[in-house]
Amino acid sequence: MIGIFDSGVGGLSVFREIRKVLPDQKYIYYSDNAHCPYGEKSQEYIISRAKSITDFLISQGAEVIVVACNTATAAAISTLRAGYSIPFIGMEPAVKPAALSTKTGTIGVLATAGTLKGSKYLNTRDRFSDGVKVAEHIGKGFVELVENGIFTGEEAEATVKASLAPLLETGADTIVLGCTHYPFLLESMKKVAASVSPDRNVSFIDPAPAVAQHLIDVMDQYGIRHSDDTDRQAVALYASGKSDTLDKLFEAL
Ligand code: DGL
Fold first, then answer.
1. Are 37 and 143 contacting, i.e. CB atoms less than 8 angstroms apart?
2. Are the C-beta atoms of residues 158 and 19 closer than 8 Å to each other?
3. Is 36 a residue of the active site?
4. Which end of the chain is more exposed for a tag (fewer CB within 10 A), N or C?
5. What pLDDT score does 226 carry?
6. Is the Cβ–Cβ distance between 91 and 68 less than 8 Å?
7. Catalytic entry in 28, 53, 69, 145
8. Residue 130 banded pLDDT, cuts 50, 70, 90
9. Active-site pick, 1, 116, 179, 246
10. How far is the CA of 36 from the centre of ligand 1 (A)?
11. Cα 226 to the center of its chain, rounded Å
């Protein structure tokens, strides 16, 4: 069984990609929305949440855990790997593919405060951004929008514009989505990009497909990719708070 968790519904953007390549596994998804957002919380707080959720997922049968949250990956994945014997898959900021595909020589990274100041992101940025300018911005209010089930429309576009426009104004043509909630705002982001930078083809990079491929490799390595589950595609959803958006978004995936 594959365990997946996030501070909220954002991890469903990762689950969506995982399910495409591993359709007949069992899943358990945990949204920690009673404690969302994680973005500005302390590392200690996030580690403690990540441990409680991990204990719960393991108690339900999880054999591998996908930390489908960039902020929790940055804050807690090394502690989790040191404290448990099952494998953990984290989110990777997609700086490398962005740096390889930019035509303007400037990429933009949208993420939470916690992710942008974490050593994982800073090391990746320094390693792969050779010769490329990297502009960063917090996606202010993005997580709250998605948790409230608002993905498109005036409010979504205004919120997206406030954080995306400053990146586009630096000349960025490739935007790294460094938070798993952000792919749900893609339509609004594309609209904003078309109006702020009509002269440029702006692309958005979501690391979830690469994370899904990595999960397959790790499951094969540990021999935990089951091909004989009788109860195929079973997905159990849990939320520490209200589950309306989780249920709705899951249905619409
Ligand atoms: N989905 C989380 C991430 O990837 C959201 C962060 C938050 O709760 O602020 O960073």
1. yes
2. no
3. no
4. C
5. 85
6. yes
7. 69
8. confident
9. 179
10. 8
11. 25
Distance from the alpha carbon of residue 143 to the mean position of ligand 1, in angstroms: 7
pLDDT in tens, 146-185: 999 999 999 999 999 999 999 999 999 999 999 999 999 9
Find the DSSP H helices in the chain.
Answer: 12-21, 43-59, 70-83, 95-101, 113-117, 119-128, 142-147, 154-168, 186-196, 208-222, 244-252
Sign of the CA dihedral running 13, 160, 36, 135:
positive
Whole-model pTM above 0.70? yes
CB burial of residue 41 (10 Å; 0-12, 13-18, 19+): buried
Q: Which two tokens stand for residue 62?
A: 């999880």
pLDDT of residue 202: 98
- Give me 147's structure tokens: 């948790």
Q: The tokens of 248 are what? A: 């709705």
| CA nearest neighbour of 238 among 103, 18, 55, 74 | 55
Q: pLDDT confidence of 229, banded at 50, 70, 90?
A: low
Q: Residues lining ligand 1, CB < 6 A?
A: 6-7, 10, 36-39, 69-71, 112, 115, 143, 179-181
